[in-house]
Structures are given as structure tokens and as C-alpha cells.
Amino acid sequence: MILEYIRYRIPGSRADEFEAAYTRAANSLRESPNCVDFELSKGVEGPDQYVLRIRWNSLEGHLENFRGSAHFRSFFAEIKPYVDAIEEMRHYVPTAVVGVGAGTPRPPTLYEWVGGQDAFERLFARFYGTVAEDEILAPLFAGMNPAHAHHVALWLGEVFGGPAAYTELRGGYENMLGHHLGKAITEEQRRRWLNLLVDAADHVGLPDDPEFRAAFMSYLEWGTRLAVANSQPDATPIRRAPVPRWGWGVAPPWTP
To answer: Which domains does the chain have, with CATH numbers?
Structure first.
């Protein structure tokens, strides 16, 4: 990536027409496959100062591809009257110094949205209480450790953005994988597991907004399909991996 900075000094009497020209010129940047993003900023201490930042996919993408395109001709036609007001026009390469400050707004984690670890404890206490009576799943969980529900609650809490308690107390991904090896889980069992867990989620009052349930079901589909694949006699699963961290995906929580 290449950053281009163009600094202008625009008298107050021309500020409105300058911003209007860039509003029109921005359409050419949006349509260019070489432009990643852009931003025009106005000075606070010096209102006559403007900085345009454009992120290009490459130096060649800007200087050769964009400038040789119809997009550039349309762009330049709008901003040409202000070329004499340019004080700097340079390219920069980003460095490794980058980060996000604590003031950046962020959506809550799925763990926070659901209500923390207590919600997962309620969920799996209810779920495994029904599993023992289910003719399809009961054989799969015969001889289950009495603490199993708590252990799975720790796992899902970590997956959904909570403390890394499963990794610290239970051995992380490798331990979870070990519970599935050789089980030969069937598709029928996977579907029943999903259905009963969703019923349990409704019963214990997990959030039912579409955004949370979409993320919730996304992980359950991914996780159960992986468990089925890893449980087969001829499986060759990856033995060491981090515990997955699941987020909102394409549908963060909606706010009006």
C-alpha cells in the first residue's frame, strides 16, 4: 500500500467551492480499482489548510494505472482550478507503527452480549440435562464426566471473546480435539446436537436478536462440522491450533 498526501491552502472565500469540487471528484476515486480509500480533512487551527489522504494499492497503481485512466481525467477536471494551491504532494510508505486506541468505538464481544460466563453455564447445564434422555445423543455421551457441561461452557466462553479459561485450565484446542477423536459422530447426531442446543438457548433466555443468533449459529455450524470430520476413523486433524475466537461477522449488533 502507498499513501499519498496532498496539502492545499485554500482561502476561506473559495472553501465551499473547493469542497464541492472534491465531492464531485471523489466519485472518480470510488470507481478506481487502484484506490483503496481516501479522506479530505480541513485544518482546525488553520481553516485555510486542507489535507487529502489517498491510499493506493501500489505506486504503479497510482502513477501509471490511475493517471492513465478515464477516472483520472474526470478527477482532474474537477480539481484542476486548485492545483496552484497545492503546497505538498508526496507518497509515503506505512511503517510497522500502527494500532487502535482505547477511544475507538467497538461492539461488545459475543461473550459480553450474551451476559458473560453465567449465561453459558446455564445453557450447557440445560442442554446436557436433555442429552441424557435423547435416544440419538445419549449413547455418544454415555459415561460423561459430571463436570463436562462446565468445561464446554468454559470453551464457548473463550471462543466468544471471554477469558482464556479453557486454555489455562483444560489444555486448549488440543484437549477439545481429544474428546472427538474416534467418536465417529454421524450427521444425524450433529443435527440433533444443534437442535437441542438451540432449544436450550431459547429455554435459558440467551439473546434472540437476529445478529447474535446469526453469529451463534455460524460458530455452531462450523464447530460441529469440524467435530464430525475430526471424529471419523480415517481423520487426520490438525493437532495443534489456537482456540478460535468468534466475532459478529458481517452483522454486528444493530443500534438505531
So the answer is: 2-92 (3.30.70.100), 110-231 (1.10.490.10)
